[in-house]
């Protein structure tokens, strides 16, 4: 019986969510870490469809303004997956949107505006931009394959999408049929996108950030400023008037190989840039270049951060005084920005969670991107081979949640008979829901209002289940 139980546990873990593992002595399970715990993981096999050989790519997050639930939007090479991560220990896969034309892509990128997600894909032919109303996720009870609410077909294949949420305009970059610069789209009515033209005077725009400027250069206060990572340079554009884009300046740097992606500090004074090929081309360690943008007409290189390994840096985002960088084989690295203006040692690493435990070498595996903006403190990472990770700074998981968890128990567990949920002290069991490994609700009962409740699971298959008590506390149950 013991061997059979281990088999079923292994089978379920290969298909389902890997649950909380604290970072202790430099590891969270198999994953190297420093000050970040693993909350859960959802593998590629659940997130993607079976077309081709699926991998993870971009990731973004959405917080429902009505329910405050948090959702991960995980871009895959053949689809876009939606996962409810409101309970970081027990994420629930809700479904996916498949690629628009039935072909797989090397990359897929997503961004959010007005409760809609906008999805582009690269090297995939006539994909266009898919638009999906995220409020549809509120009513999902079983995983679904969704259809988009709209598809914008003026573009075919685009590498990335940028949205300045303050103005309702999407900036699609490196679109193969519109000049490979920047393509402007009015998305103020999300399901009825309107073309606003193109800007192609500065070559290929690989990635960008667009802000309504409120930084130190008062000449541009209130203007829409685009910072483009344009393969061979960083370009600063005034894109306030889409029919009259004005180039402000550009800047290059030493050991330039492929200008990939960057992000402003919150005060819009400094810009942190990653070059995706310098580690390979020059044999250097992970490098983040800091530019001083105090004068947008005259940007200057301020300092350089060198990481502890030769891993390639990919996408990075600023939140307050921290820079969260997806660094391929080195996973997520967290840098302290408190001294960003210093001439030397301007950045320092203060934590990490390595989603690629094999090595930190120079290769295109591991963490593709990271989203650190959930108000809960949960951070989501999309890993090329291993899928969605939910991580969190060590020691910050709600003590209230932990206390509530301790008020309930399930026995026997593992169980080969119907187990009993029991409440301790003065608690009562008001409702119970049971989910299988795919997130499908297989049992639900409310208005119980008793200290004990027997789960009628005698007809269910062996495996791992999640039992949610009173709509808040989640417990893992093994049926054997």
UniProtKB/TrEMBL annotation:
InterPro entries, alphabetized: Choice_anch_B, Secre_tail
UniProt keyword annotations, A-Z: Signal
Q: Which residues form a coiled coil?
A: none
Task: Provide the Secretion system C-terminal sorting domain boundaries.
Answer: 410-476
- The answer on whether this UniProt entry bears the keyword Nucleotide-binding reads no
Instruction: Report which superkingdom the organism of origin falls in.
Output: Bacteria
Give the matching Pfam families. Answer: Por_Secre_tail
State the name under which the record lists this protein.
Choice-of-anchor B family protein
Which organism does this sequence originate in? Pseudotenacibaculum haliotis
């Amino acid at each position: 019986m013991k061997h059979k139980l281990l088999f079923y546990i292994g089978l379920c873990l290969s298909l389902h969510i890997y649950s909380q593992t604290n970072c202790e002595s430099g590891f969270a399970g198999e994953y190297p870490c420093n000050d970040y715990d693993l909350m859960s993981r959802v593998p590629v096999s659940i997130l993607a469809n079976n077309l081709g050989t699926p991998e993870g790519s971009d990731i973004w997050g959405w917080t429902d303004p009505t329910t405050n639930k948090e959702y991960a939007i995980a871009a895959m090479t053949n689809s876009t997956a939606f996962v409810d991560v409101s309970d970081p220990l027990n994420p629930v896969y809700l479904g996916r949107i498949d690629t628009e034309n039935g072909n797989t892509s090397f990359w897929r990128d997503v961004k959010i505006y007005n409760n809609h997600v906008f999805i582009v894909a690269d090297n995939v032919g006539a994909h266009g931009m898919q638009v999906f109303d995220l409020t549809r996720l509120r009513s999902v009870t079983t995983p679904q394959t969704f259809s988009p609410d709209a598809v914008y077909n003026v573009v075919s294949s685009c590498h990335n999408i940028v949205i300045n949420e303050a103005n309702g305009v999407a900036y699609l970059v490196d679109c193969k049929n519109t000049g490979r610069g920047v393509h402007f789209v009015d998305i103020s009515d999300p399901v009825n996108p309107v073309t606003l033209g193109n800007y192609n005077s500065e070559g290929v725009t690989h990635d960008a950030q667009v802000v309504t400027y409120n930084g130190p250069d008062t000449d541009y206060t209130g203007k829409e400023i685009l910072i483009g990572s344009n393969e061979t340079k960083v370009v600063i554009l005034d894109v306030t008037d889409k029919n009259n884009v004005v180039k402000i300046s550009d800047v290059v740097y030493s050991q330039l190989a492929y200008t990939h992606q960057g992000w402003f500090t919150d005060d819009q004074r400094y810009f942190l840039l990653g070059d995706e090929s310098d580690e390979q081309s020059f044999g250097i360690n992970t490098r983040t270049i800091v530019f001083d943008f105090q004068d947008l007409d005259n940007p200057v290189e301020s300092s350089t951060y060198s990481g502890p390994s030769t891993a390639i840096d990919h996408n990075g985002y600023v939140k307050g005084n921290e820079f969260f960088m997806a660094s391929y084989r080195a996973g997520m690295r967290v840098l302290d920005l408190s001294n960003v203006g210093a001439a030397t040692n301007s950045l320092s690493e203060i934590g990490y969670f390595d989603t690629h435990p094999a090595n930190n070498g120079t290769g295109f595996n591991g963490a593709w991107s990271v989203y650190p903006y959930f108000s809960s403190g949960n951070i989501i990472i999309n890993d090329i081979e291993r899928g969605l990770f939910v991580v969190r700074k060590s020691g910050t998981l709600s003590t209230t949640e932990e206390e509530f968890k301790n008020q309930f128990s399930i026995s026997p567990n593992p169980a080969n008979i119907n187990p009993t949920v029991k409440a301790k002290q003065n608690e009562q069991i008001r409702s119970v829901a049971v989910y299988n490994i795919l997130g499908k609700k297989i049992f639900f009962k409310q208005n119980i209002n008793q200290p004990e409740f027997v789960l009628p699971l005698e007809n269910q298959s062996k495996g791992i289940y999640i039992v949610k008590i009173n709509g808040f506390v989640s417990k893992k149950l093994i049926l054997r």
